[in-house]
From TrEMBL:
<keyword id="KW-0808">Transferase</keyword>
<protein>
    <submittedName>
        <fullName>Glutathione S-transferase domain protein</fullName>
    </submittedName>
</protein>
<dbReference type="GO" id="GO:0016740">
    <property type="term" value="F:transferase activity"/>
</dbReference>
<feature type="domain" description="GST N-terminal">
    <location>
        <begin position="1"/>
        <end position="80"/>
    </location>
</feature>
<dbReference type="InterPro" id="IPR036282">
    <property type="entry name" value="Glutathione-S-Trfase_C_sf"/>
</dbReference>
<dbReference type="InterPro" id="IPR004045">
    <property type="entry name" value="Glutathione_S-Trfase_N"/>
</dbReference>
<dbReference type="InterPro" id="IPR036249">
    <property type="entry name" value="Thioredoxin-like_sf"/>
</dbReference>
<dbReference type="Pfam" id="PF13409">
    <property type="entry name" value="GST_N_2"/>
</dbReference>
């Protein structure tokens, strides 16, 4: 059985959505951020980077969100991704890695500016990253409108994009309101479609995300663990 090492409303949520869509048997193992369990020796043996998530598989531990999603898509199919020999494979890969390497990476800079800029430079850095993220979401809105089938659930692209949108609404705490889902009509439709699916409802229930976790998100109220 697969084991997903997770914290609520972390990047592991993206993986949980994919697992639920695949109908794959898995167990969720909490990484308790309140006690910095991601820095423990036990967790570092799974993921030496100390980031969440990690997925234990029969082929070993996979970490990095994009890598896990690609592994699941190739392993389980079922619309999670695009087959290696399919014509749309290149489109699938380029947007998966844009989400992982560019959009997600930039969004992290908003959440953890202390890891990227010296003290006193946070305000300017925030403005730069917000501008970058709005450009990213604009590009994605155009891409989804042009090829909705590529991004539509159960694709991992849908899960990844919807969770990034959720975080953009909610974080960083004290600096919200820079992103509105309704400003991006194709992305808003994707969010509504995803959160109505049984797999997304199960994931939202497991992590305390409410009924509209992507189109009108509220902070997580999990039964265990901490999102921050």
């Amino acid at each position: 059985m697969l084991v997903l090492h997770y914290a609520p409303d972390n990047a592991s949520l993206i993986v949980r959505l994919a697992l639920e869509e695949a109908g794959a048997p898995y167990r969720a193992a909490l990484v308790d951020r309140e006690v910095r369990a991601q820095d423990s020796a036990a967790y570092r043996r799974l993921n030496p980077v100390g980031l969440i998530p990690a997925l234990e598989t029969s082929q070993g531990v996979v970490f990095e969100t994009g890598a896990i999603l690609l592994w699941l898509a190739d392993r389980f199919g079922g619309g999670l991704g695009v087959a290696p020999d399919a014509e749309a494979r290149g489109d699938f890969l380029k947007w998966l890695f844009f989400l992982s390497n560019t959009a997600h990476a930039d969004l992290r800079q908003l959440f953890y500016p202390e890891n990227y800029v010296p003290e006193g430079a946070e305000a300017g850095h925030h403005d730069i990253i917000v501008a970058r993220m709005l450009r990213h979401f604009g590009l994605l809105d155009v891409a989804v409108a042009a090829d909705p089938a590529l991004f539509a659930a159960p694709s991992v692209l849908s899960a990844y994009l919807a969770v990034l949108m959720r975080w953009a609404v909610l974080y960083p705490e004290g600096q919200r309101r820079w992103f509105r889902v309704t400003d991006f009509p194709a992305l808003a439709a994707l969010a509504r479609d995803l959160e109505a699916r049984p797999a997304a409802l199960r994931a939202a229930l497991a992590e305390g995300l409410g009924r509209t976790p992507f189109s009108e998100p509220d902070p997580a109220c999990p039964s265990e663990g901490s999102a921050l």
